[in-house]
Amino acid sequence: MEWDKLWAYNKDFIDTFSPRYTAIVKETASIIEIENGPEGIVAETHPLHQKNPVLGSKSVFFGKTLYIETGDAKDLTVGEKITLMKWGNAEVTSIQEKEGTIWVKATLKLDDKDFKGTKKLTWITKDDATNFEVTLVELDHLITKKKVEENESVKDIVNYNSYISYTAIAEGPMKMLKKGDFI
C-alpha cells in the first residue's frame, strides 16, 4: 500500500470520532473587524462534530474582532460576499495592511442565506479572557517518494524535515482537552 492511501484511510477512520476545534496560526493571523457585530462577546452552543452529535457540544464565541489566516485574508476583495463558518454571510467593506498584518472590515448580512460560491472562512473571536496559545504539530511524510525501489538507500529518500510545529491562537473550549484526546 502506498503512503498516501494509508494516510487517507487513517484520516477517514479518525475523522468519524474526532471533535472539531479551531486555532489560527499566530504568525500568520489576520484580523476581521465586524462593523455590525455584537457589542460584547456572545456565546452560542454548537456541536463538536456536525455529523456526529454524540461527541457533544462546545461554546462558540462571537465578537466584533476575529482572527483568520492571512492566506484567507489575502484572497479577499472589497465588496466580496464571504461566509464566516458557523455564523453567516458578510460583505467585505475594506482591506488594509498595517505592520505586516492584514486588517479586513466586514458587515454581517445574516438575512442572506445563499452560501453558494462564497469563500468559507474559519475564524475565532479575539477574546483575551478565553483565547490561549497552543503548539500545533504537523507530521509530513517520512520518505520523499511514493514507492521505494529495492536498490535505493533510505538515507537518500528520507524526509529530514517531517516534523513541523507552529504556535497558534486557540479558542477557549480547547482548554478542556486532555492529553490523548483526538481532535
Oligomer: single chain
What is the straight-line distance between the termini?
26 Å
Poorly predicted segments: none
SS-derived structural category: mainly beta
Can you tell me the number of structural domains? Answer: 1
Structure description:
It is a single chain. The chain is mainly beta and 183 residues long. It has a single domain, classed as Ribosomal Protein L25, Chain P. Helix content is 12%, strand content 38%. It has three helices and twelve strands, in the order αβββββαββββββαβ. The strands form three sheets. The chain has a seven-stranded mixed β-sheet. Strands 1-12-11 form a three-stranded antiparallel β-sheet, with no helix packed on it. Strands 3-4 form a two-stranded antiparallel sheet. Strand 6 and strand 7 form a beta hairpin. It is globular and about 65 Å long. The protein starts with a helix and ends in a 13-residue tail after the last strand. The model has no long low-confidence stretch (mean pLDDT 92).
Please describe the structure with a list of short key phrases separated by commas or semicolons.
single chain; mainly beta; Ribosomal Protein L25, Chain P; globular
Summarize this entry quickly.
This protein is mainly β and 183 residues long.
Sequence-ordered SSE layout with sheet pairings:
Layout: H1 3-15, E1 23-25, E2 29-34, E3 42-47, E4 57-62, E5 65-69, H2 70-74, E6 81-84, E7 88-98, E8 101-108, E9 119-121, E10 124-125, E11 132-139, H3 154-157, E12 163-170
Parallel strand pairs: 2-8, 6-9
Antiparallel strand pairs: 1-12, 2-5, 3-4, 5-10, 6-7, 7-8, 11-12
